[in-house]
Amino acid sequence: MSQITHVPLARLEQTVTDIFVRAGMTAEGAAAMAETIVAGERDACKSHGIYRIEGCLRTIRAGKVRAGAVPVLTTDSSAIVRVDAAGGYGPGAFRCGLPALIERTRALGLAALVINDCTHFSALWHEVEALTDAGLAALAMCPSYATVAPAGGIRPLLGTNPMAFGWPRPGPTPYVFDFATSVTARGEIELHRRAGTPLPEGQALDAEGHPTTDPEAALAGAMLPFGGHKGSAIATMIELLAGAMIGDFNSSEALDWLGTTALLPRHGELILAFDPARFAGGRADPLARAEGLLDAIVGQGARLPSQRRFEARVRARADGVALTEAEIALLDRLLRDGSDAVA
What protein family does this chain belong to (predicted)? Predict the structure, then answer.
């Protein structure tokens, strides 16, 4: 059995930051990447943790993302805050725009952060939680690259197109959900491929459009939207709002630009933020009313989304992140060799 090492969060975050600095990123950009990746490990979301570092470095090496990009913030008197990621990674662009988004939301009651020209690799719950920490509700979404067939179709056209929602709560954790609009995330299929295990039925098609449980065939074919036509419609909505509406790539265009799914997708992102108190207009306490609903859900024996993540977070903060020998060796190799490690 592989030995498990518990690595303190701060130490792991510094290691990941150093890896990206070695790859040519600015200190601030590298720190934003590390914060996002370590959050995935902290919350036991392995498909969005250190597993993602190799893909990030490979995309830098291929010249499809600018390692040293510095995001540019633009604001005016409107509710729209813009960040040009300048061809860099999304976490640094989000960090750049977050204070202005919070300020505009508090001033106007609602505001939007538009991120253009970024490369995205991460879960969105980390971003909506940054807004719930400020007492705001948030909705985030982005396209990907074309890996999902529309309901009734047989070829990739839509992205996995994740969407996340966050609602602030009085306690230490918000109400948060984050899911791909495909049946599963592409990273989960990749983990099945690495482990040599089959997919559950109903998740993917092969290159000829036939149902498959073989992760290799699924990666060469198409994933399916969750909920059939309903998930397909939501994925299309995200293409329209976070692609066409913000003047950025849709998933098909992102794949054409990359030419491969072996690299990370370049597109835009849309984050909407809401001030619950401003929307309530003094009629009631929206947070208290929300607690009544959430307590009723739990009172029936149901779990709220993200509860397993939050439980893992408590353990990781106390004990550190559990990493295998192979994961420790990977970090050592990436820190030593930088982007040469993924040549």
Answer: Belongs to the LDH2/MDH2 oxidoreductase family.
Domain 185-224, CATH homologous superfamily name and number: Hypothetical oxidoreductase yiak; domain 3 (3.30.60.50)
Q: pLDDT band for position 258 (50/70/90)?
A: very high
* Residues assigned a catalytic role: 47-48, 188
The fraction of the chain above a pLDDT of 90, given in percent, is: 92
Extract the tokens encoding 91: 């976490």
- What kind of architecture, by CATH, is found in domain 1-61+306-343? Orthogonal Bundle (1.10)
- Which contiguous run of DSSP H or E holds residue 279? helix 276-280
Any idea what DSSP says for residue 283?
S
The helix or strand, by DSSP H or E, that contains position 84, with its residue range, turns out to be: strand 80-84
Residue 244 DSSP class: I
Return the pLDDT at 35.
Answer: 97
For residues 135 and 111, give the distance between their C-alpha atoms in angstroms, rounded to a whole number.
Answer: 14
The per-residue pLDDT for 1 is 52
- 248 C-beta neighbours (distance < 10 Å), count: 22
CB distance 178 to 138 below 8 Å: no
Quote the DSSP letter at residue 180: -
CB atoms within 10 A of CB 75: 15
How much is the pLDDT for 186? 78
pLDDT at 288: 96
Spatial separation of the C-alpha atoms in residues 184 and 226, rounded to whole Å: 8
Alpha-carbon distance of 60 to 296, in angstroms, equals 47
Residues whose CB falls within 8 Å of the CB of residue 72, separated by 6 or more in sequence, listed in order:
83, 84, 86, 96
| pLDDT tens-digit series, residues 150-185 | 999 999 999 999 999 999 999 889 999 999 999 987
- Pairing mode, strands 110-119 and 80-84: parallel
Residue 295: how many other CB atoms lie within 10 Å:
9
Region of poorest pLDDT, from 17-21, 174-178, 262-266, 270-274: 262-266
Transcribe 102-170 into DSSP letters. Answer: HHHHHHHSEEEEEEEEEE--S-SHHHHHHHHTTT-EEEEE----S-BPPTT--S--B----EEEEE--S
